[in-house]
Amino acid sequence: MAALGTSPTTLTDAADVLALLVLLSEFAMLRSSLSRSQVRLYAFQSLCVSVLAGFVAATRHIGELYGLMSMSFVLKVIVVPMIILRLVKEVRVDVTAGHRIGVATMVLLAIVLSIFGIFVVGRLPVHSRSLPILPLALAAAVILVSFLLVIVRNDVVSQAIGFFSLENGVSVASLVLAAGLPLIVELAFLFDLLVAVVVFALLMRVHHGRAGTLSTQALDRLRG
Amino acid sequence: MGAVLIAILVLPLAASVVCLKAPMPTAKAVSLTSGVATFGLALTLVSSHQVATALSGWLRADALSVVFLLAVSFLYGATTVFAVGYLRPGEGPAEARYSRRFFAGLNLFAWAMAMAPIVNGLALLWVAIEVTTVVSALLVAIGDTDGAVEAAWKYVLIASMGLGIALLATVFMYYAGSTVLGGSYEIFYPKLLGAAPYLPPEIVRLSFGLAVLGFGTKMGLVPVHTWLPDAHSEAPTPVSALLSGALLTVSFYAILRFYQVTERAIGPAFPRDVLLVFGLASLVLAALYLASQRDLKRLLAYSSIEHMGILAIGMSFSAPIAIVGVLLHVLAHAAAKSTAFFGAGSLIRKFGTKDMDRIRGGIGALPWSGPMFLLAVLALSAMPPFGIFRSEFLIVEGGLSSGATALSAVLIVLVTCAFLGLSWFASQTMLTPTPESVVRGEVSVWMAGSMVIGLVALVVLGLHPPAQLCGLLERAAAELGART
């Protein structure tokens, strides 16, 4: 740590703050009632993840991570939000369809899940060379809350955003755990995400075309 | 042998590109050639005792890979035969567009599934399986009905969330490897397997649990199976057959790769317990749901969940013979389930409905496909002389010899329950008088022909599996830690 030239506490604190911002934007997405602001929050969250990647690249001198950072910036901060925003604009439905449980219950549940994630993962015997353990614990919380988001919100935009933010949580976790993962694999992950976004957007549009809504309430014919 | 792997990498992909532009007859011919040739290429790997590698190690096929590659390529070949009859020639631009999308998607889907067993390393395996999700979701939605769109949405969302968890498992396993091998190590299997005894046990345990949950979502393990019946019933029949026979087992292959590392790192007890819980839940739920289905393809989908449960339970028995049984079951299930789906496809075409209350007298209506469908259902219910009888026999024998007597008994009871559900509906739809309004005769020779292929494979696997295949299964079981 001392070899890095800066005070270790400042460095780890900066990483912790970035990871915390990722979790807070996840909460804001859960709470947000406008599709458009949800997408913007996702872009902000992705920005935090990209900055965290750049931060690790700079402090730990992992050159490959710069490439990853720029790819993830272009894709997750610009391309993906643009695709979804265009779709939302096209179908002229801005208010999301709502949620299955009350806002207060939803946020309380999210807090309980976050505490669970932070404490369970925080106790793991992980000694990362790139980041302290707290961002990993926060990433676990992000992943759990993203599941809650997909489960309780009933419109396809929220559900897709929930999946993309799950992927952001996994990205933070992989920055802690696997900062040295070969670049080609990281690029494959990102490429996959891009393909997944296209498929999600395509299906959203088809769903809207058939049902005239982005709500998932029309998606209840297949049971049993 | 490396050239074979490269050919498998190139062939279906090239076929997919050609089908994007080609008119329907060309697309059919190209797909059929590619399907049959891929199976032929996979067969050449069966008797090889060496591990085939190519592209400086990025492609690698050991015995375990070859078993799953066989299942995938067999289904690819059989499905293209079926698809030749399934897509009716049409003149309009809509039919031409559908055909282009369908065949391009089908070949790409098969390509991604063939890649999964032969790429080297857990990270690339994850990438291949993610590609199967996005391609197959589009194929599920291709019918563009309300049901198809709903099923595709549920499928892509649930499977992607599951794969997110699987990605986390992959990252944790990579971290476990880096504690022994250092920051940027080669991510190929042999390296990780070599380091396995020194990996930190807590991390490996966490990673395995996450992998079973994540890949289990795509494999259709209860309680994360919910996308499966919808996608299987709404997809075009050739896609349903590929989903059920190949995609689910490819996800099982991913779990086995994690099992391989975990078993060497912390011993077999933990991974077996995890698989047992998921396997039993799947078997119980599928056996119950099989009895209450109305939709023919949903019935077969629940039968898939049942068989995935059997695979998971089979892995939880510690006897080597059970692991051989599990691997044989992968092949036999692929043949039996695809044959059943092909038969269901002909029945649905004939009667114009998936509703089993309105399908009557299938044997009379379809003189060849009808009886063959019935045979496929019997094969799925583990009747001799078909392959599944042999594989389930080996699994139960393994269970009894390893002292899991109660569990083996439960397995037999649940499989029998599933058999009752499946055979009740099969006899209701097949062995009743044929309505006057239905014209007797086959829908398509190709569709019936694909069933013959499946049944022949089942009989061969059941009566006398070739010695090379038995050798392959034993080598694969040894790679999974079965010590005789």
How much strand of chain A? under 5%
Shape of chain B: globular
Secondary-structure-based class of chain B equals mainly alpha
Order of helices and strands of chain B: HHEEHHHHHHHHHHHHHHHHH
Straight-line distance between termini of chain B = 28 Å
Major β-sheet profile of chain B: 2 strands, antiparallel
Number of strands of chain A: 0
Please work out how many helical segments of chain B DSSP would assign: 19
Mean pLDDT of chain A: 83
Order of helices and strands of chain A: HHHHHHH
Q: How would the global form of chain A be characterised?
A: globular
Separate helix tally of chain A:
7
- Count of distinct structural domains of chain A: 1
What does this protein structure show overall?
The complex is a heterodimer of chains A (224) and B (484). With 224 residues, chain A is mostly helical. Chain A has helices spanning 8-31, 35-60, 64-91, 103-122, 134-152, 156-177, 183-211. Chain A has one domain (6-216). Chain A has 7 helices and no strands. The longest helix of chain A is centred in the C-terminal third of the chain and has 29 residues, at 183-211. Mean pLDDT of chain A is 83; it is low at 1-6. In chain B, strands 1-2 form a two-stranded antiparallel ribbon. In chain B, helix 12 (296-316) runs antiparallel to helix 17 and helix 13 packs antiparallel against helix 18. Chain B has a domain at 273-484. Chain B is mainly α. The longest helix of chain B has 36 residues, at 146-181. The mean pLDDT of chain B is 92. At the A-B interface, helix 5, helix 6 and helix 7 of A face helix 5, helix 6, helix 8 and helix 9 of B.
